[in-house]
Amino acid sequence: xxxxxxxxxxxxxxxxxxxxxxxxxxxxxxxxxxxxxxxxxxxxxxxxxxxxxxxxxxxxxxxxxxxxxxxxxxxxxxxxxxxxxxxxxxxxxxxxxxxxxxxxxxxxxxxxxxxxxxxxxxxxxxxxxxxxxxxxxxxxxxxxxxxxxxxxxxxxxxxxxxxxxxxxxxxxxxxxxxxxxxxxxxxx
Length: 188
Fold this sequence. Notes:
2 domains, alpha+beta, 188 residues, flat
């Protein structure tokens, strides 16, 4: 087999896999994982509601999931006053809260946009052709911003560990260049 024939074969197989993934998009997965106990009183949990929603991840493509939410039988409340509610752990680890988008898609978009300087349309095209995931360019913009927000929160949470690692490594070089495109200094 020549390299060209191998490439044509792999492209054909990739297209076949995408067709099969698309065919599975009509299936509904059930996520009814009952939590062991209430995180506050250690009491039992009752079903609050179940509903079906869409999921989109790089790992699984587009799918529907019927997710069951659980509530504390004793009516416990968080300090904020919110009722103690738990969702299926497998779904919570895969999809962002209040969204049909998986964390892996969020990271793919964030890295593509900010690390690889890809345009929204480029990211959209790769998501569709390689993973069978359809997103608008507006959704991609929103997810790119959310990626930065999550990254900033992670940075703040891990700031002391980052500082300790840099101190242990002997510090870090810091260069501030305030030269603008015109070659002049800038004042902030």
